[in-house]
Amino acid sequence: MKNSIIYICMIAAMVWFTACDDDYENPTGEPNHFSVFLSEEDFENQVQVNDHIDFGDVSRGVIARTWTFPAGSVDIVGSENNETSPEPVVKAVFITPGTFEVTLSQEYAGNAFIDEDLRSSTIDTTYTITVLDSVRSSFEANLLLPDGSVGSPLTIADGALNKIEAGNTIQYTATSTGGSTDYTWILEGGDPAEISSEPGDDAAITEVKYKKLGVYDAMLISSRARPFGVDTTRFEDVIEITASTAPVLIDEAFRQDNSVVLNFSREMQNPAAEAANFTVTVRNNGQTIMPAVSAVRLDPDASNIIYLDLGDELLYNTDTITVSYTQGTLTTTDFYLVDPFADVSVDPSKVNLLTGPNATIDYGIETTSESNWPYLWWGGIWGEYTFEVSTDQVFEGAKSAYVVMKPGGGMIIGHREGDDSFTFPAEDGKLYEVGVWMYVESIGNNGAGAPPDLRFYVADPFFELGIQPFAPGQIELGKWVFVSFRIGTFPTSGNLGLAIRGFNGNNPEEVRFYMDNITVTELQQRP
C-alpha cells in the first residue's frame, strides 16, 4: 500500500512540472509545395481585351513572391503599381491585345516540390497569356464564274448596287478579326438566304445563288464562344439582281410526296398553262408508267421552284423517275423562254434512318473518333489495316473515314462507345437498302483468288447485308460514288448495330479508300 502511494505522488509531480513548461508543438512535417492557379487556365489562358484574369498563389512554404506583368498592358485592380505585385492573389485587367508573358518568382523556406519533383528554394514560372481583340465583323464577296473559279471582287458598301445577272452565284468570305469562330449570314434574295455555322463547318466561306430580281442587303454576324464576343456588320442595297440572257438550269429535281419538284436557277412566271408540255416517266421492276401531269404550280415561298402534280398517281422511293419538257411558254421573271429538256433524273428522296431521333450511329463520321470504330479481334489477316478519321477527302461535312487494307490483309470493325454498340431501329419483314459513299484511291493489283471487297453486317445477331468488290470495272476510282445493297429483310426487329469487314487477302498491294455518309433506308415497294 505504501509503495502504491509513493508511485501516485511521483506521477502527480511529473504532471505538475510539465504543466509549468511552455506548450510543446509537434512539427507537422508538411513539405514546401508549389500550387498556383489561373482563372482561365482551363481555356488556354485566353481573355478578351479589357477583361481580367485572376492569378492565385496558394503554395505552401512561400516566404516571398513577385508577380511581374508586361509594362503598359495590364491594370492591376486595387494597386497603383501595374507591373509587379507581392500579393498571393492578383486580379489583372489586360488592356491591349497580343500575347504576353507573366512571371512568378517565389522564395520558399526550403526546397520545394512541384508535383512529385523536388526543386530548390527559388522557383521562377512563366505563364503565356493570349489577349484577343474585340470581335469585329467584316466580309468580302466575289462573283463565281461558270467554271466555279473565283471572279472579280464586289464593292461592299451601302448602296453599292453590284449588278449581278439572275442565276449567278456569289462567294462570301468572312474577314472578321478578334478570333471569330462562328458565323451567321443573312443574305436577302439568296438561296439559301441564311447560313450558320454547324459542326465541321464554321461557314466562314459560303456560296449563295441569286435567282430573284431585286435589290438586296447583306449581313454577317461574327462570334466567338470563349472568351465570348460578337459583332454584326450589315450593308444595305449592296446587291442588285438583273435580268439574264443565260440559259435556265435545273439545279435539282426530286420527289416530294406524289409530286415532282423542279428547282430552277431563276424565278418563274406562273406556269399553270404548261401541264401538257411536261412528261413524267416512272419505271419500277419492269413496269413503265407515264402519269399525266394534272397541274403545274409555283412554290408560294420560292417562285424558282415548280411542282408537277400527278393526280392520283402514287410515287415510291424505289421508282426510277425522269421528267422531260417540250418547249411551250414557260418563262422566267426576267422574260427568258425556258429551253426544252429530256429525261432529267428525279431524286426519289429516300430518307436515311440513321439521321432519325432513334438512331445513334455516326453516319457521317463527324462526331466520333477512331476509338469508336474498334477492331473486333477476329485474328489472322483481319487486323491488318489502318483506320483514320480524316479531313483530307470528304463527301459532305468536315470528316470521313480513311481505310488502308495492307497487302494480304483485311479489316473487321464495329461502331461502339465502350462495350455498347451505336444502333439504328429496324423491323423484320420490311425491305431496306444499306449504302455508303466511297472514294477509292487504289484497288491494288489482285492476282488469283477472290478480289478485295467491303462488306456490311448487322452486328448482333451477325448478319451480312451486302458486298462491294474492289475489282476493275466494278467501282470507279478517284471520285465519290454511292454503293448500296438491298436487303430482303433484317434478321430481327429492334435497335441494331453495324459492323464493317474488308478483305484484301489475295492482293500483294494496298487497297485505300474513304467512306462517308452511311445510309439505311426503308424501301417502299410498288404493288
Characterise this structure:
The protein is mainly β and 527 residues long. Helices cover 4% and strands 47% of the residues. The protein has 4 domains: 32-132, Immunoglobulins (Immunoglobulin-like, Sandwich); 139-242, Immunoglobulin-like, CATH 2.60.40; 250-346, Immunoglobulin-like (Sandwich); 353-522, Galactose-binding domain-like (Jelly Rolls, Sandwich), CATH 2.60.120. A hairpin with a 2-residue loop joins β23 and β24 (259-264). The radius of gyration is 35 Å and the shape is flat. The N and C termini lie far apart (116 Å).
Features of the shown structure:
mainly beta, five-stranded antiparallel β-sheet, Immunoglobulin-like, 42 strands, five-stranded mixed β-sheet, disordered N terminus, 527 residues, 1 helix, 4 domains, flat
Helix and strand topology:
Blueprint: H1 2-20, E1 32-33, E2 36-38, E3 46-48, E4 52-57, E5 62-68, E6 74-76, E7 84-85, E8 89-94, E9 98-108, E10 112-114, E11 117-118, E12 122-132, E13 139-144, E14 150-153, E15 162-165, E16 169-174, E17 182-187, E18 190-191, E19 194-196, E20 205-210, E21 214-224, E22 229-242, E23 250-256, E24 259-264, E25 278-284, E26 287-289, E27 295-299, E28 302-309, E29 320-325, E30 341-346, E31 385-390, E32 400-405, E33 410-414, E34 416-417, E35 420-421, E36 423-426, E37 432-442, E38 453-458, E39 463-469, E40 480-487, E41 494-503, E42 511-522
Parallel strand pairs: 1-10, 3-12, 15-22
Antiparallel strand pairs: 2-4, 4-8, 5-7, 5-9, 6-8, 9-12, 10-11, 13-14, 13-16, 16-20, 17-19, 17-21, 18-20, 21-22, 23-24, 24-28, 25-26, 25-29, 27-28, 29-30, 31-32, 32-42, 33-41, 34-35, 36-41, 37-40, 37-42, 38-39, 38-41
